[in-house]
Write a structure and sequence with these properties.
This protein has 19 helices and no strands. It is mostly helical and about 425 residues long.
Length: about 425
């Protein structure tokens, strides 16, 4: 039986997610730790590097959304993976804070064009009934990237951070370019249909009332009427703002952990970078379990309730990290935060597609990025600034955890937008 090409798209997207998570997202905390030690840069200065990534993604969001809605991802990803690799080559040669920021700008630009945003939209165009499952499988690549943190940390200790950055750039270009050429925008480009199954035929009203035809069977055969909001129409709905706000609150925790967790365990709790990376690896294993759970239930359970529960788990996990006095608390942090991240992540995009349709989903996600960026930027910055003021991450992590926990209310109150808002 021929394999549905959509699953190949998911596999390619998962690999690119793995590559960026392994080399950048999860590894950035290790770079923060070693660069701070070598150059004496404070945590606020290094946090600006993370803020640059988030701000660049937010500013590019509407442009990326416009391009995705009109031309698809293939050429964008090809250009992006080259920039991503070149940025790491530049990073391997830096000797100043300005050079560090320049390298991060190039890396972030490449990541925006070849990463989560265009890949997610592409996957959503290939699936409807199995959308949450497909996005969760794609997310496995993102989670598996965390397993590479220990390898990156080992490489930094064995070969130095410069050689590690240089090798990262070479690997990204050599491996990523051929895969980017295989991306297709939608099933029609390869003569297939959404989900890999024939579209259901319309059923007439006469057929519904025909003798021997049960109403449930006839109703099931009818094609599903999907929403098709424009970006302007979506902006006028409470659902757009509640989802974006909740997503941004979640990323307060996610980005703060990615940037500062290793440094907190190293400087505040007395662990080595390699030891701290073990808990990040455990967090990643738990994230994988969350993604598998999302693949199993994400298309069947109420997405907003799942997201609300995950926000409470994010809060509890970060508080355990902030006040850890025993390795068991770090294990608890890793399990709770990782599982919540894995389960919630794909739901953020799937629920947008469910509520607003795919006609303008690129622009809708791009505009959402402006709000989400506040969480991405504020998380590392708040943690870094309060560390420099207090000498500890405890205050910053506590503030971020409580704000993120309150975000569960945003998901609790979100509802599908009514059709009359589109008139």
């Amino acid at each position: 039986m021929k394999l549905f090409y959509g699953w190949r798209i998911v596999g390619i997207a998962a690999f690119f997610s793995f590559l960026q998570a392994c080399l950048l997202m999860h590894a950035f905390g290790a770079y923060v730790a070693v660069l701070g030690d070598e150059f004496g840069w404070n945590k606020t200065s290094l946090s600006i590097g993370a803020a640059i990534q988030s701000l660049e993604g937010a500013l590019l969001g509407p442009l990326l959304g416009w391009l995705m809605d009109r031309m698809g991802a293939r050429h964008m990803v090809q250009a992006g993976i080259v920039l991503f690799g070149v940025g790491f080559l530049v990073l391997s040669q830096i000797d100043s804070l300005g050079g560090f920021y320049l390298a991060i700008v190039i890396i972030a630009l490449g990541a925006s064009f070849s990463g989560y945003f265009p890949l997610t939209i592409t996957v959503m165009h290939w699936f409807h009934r199995r959308r949450s499952r497909a996005l969760s499988i794609m997310g496995l690549g993102l989670a598996a990237g965390g397993l590479g943190v220990s390898l990156v940390a080992w490489s930094m200790q064995a070969h130095g951070w410069r050689m590690t950055a240089f090798a990262s750039g070479v690997i990204a270009i050599v491996v990523g370019w051929p895969l980017a050429r295989m991306i297709r925008r939608n099933p029609e480009e390869v003569g297939e249909t959404v989900d890999g199954v024939p579209a259901p035929l319309p059923v007439s009203d006469a057929a519904v009332s025909a003798p021997g035809t049960t109403a449930p069977a006839a109703a099931a055969a009818r094609p599903v009427v999907l929403p098709n909001f424009t970006a302007a129409q979506a902006l006028r709905t409470p659902a757009f703002w509640l989802i974006a706000g909740g997503h941004g609150f979640a990323l307060l925790v996610v980005t703060a952990v990615n940037v500062h967790a290793i440094s907190h365990m190293k400087s505040g709790l007395g662990y080595s970078v390699a030891q701290a990376s073990f808990f990040i690896t455990l967090m990643t294993a738990s994230q994988i379990l969350g993604l598998l759970a999302g693949a199993a239930v994400g298309d069947h359970w109420e997405k907003r309730n799942l997201a609300a529960g995950c926000m409470l788990a994010h809060m509890t996990g970060l508080l355990m990290l902030a006040f850890a006095f025993h390795p068991a608390m770090l294990v608890g942090f890793a399990l709770l935060h990782g599982f919540a991240w894995g389960l919630r992540g794909p739901i953020m995009q799937s629920i947008r597609a469910d509520y607003f349709g795919l006609g303008s989903i690129g622009m809708i996600m791009g505009l959402s990025g402006f709000l989400i960026a506040f969480g991405q930027v504020a998380g590392p910055m708040v943690a870094g600034i309060l560390y420099d003021l207090t000498g500890s991450y405890r205050a910053g992590f506590t503030v971020l955890a409580l704000v993120a926990g309150s975000g569960s209310l945003l998901f609790f109150f979100v509802r599908p937008p009514q059709t009359d808002t589109r008139s």
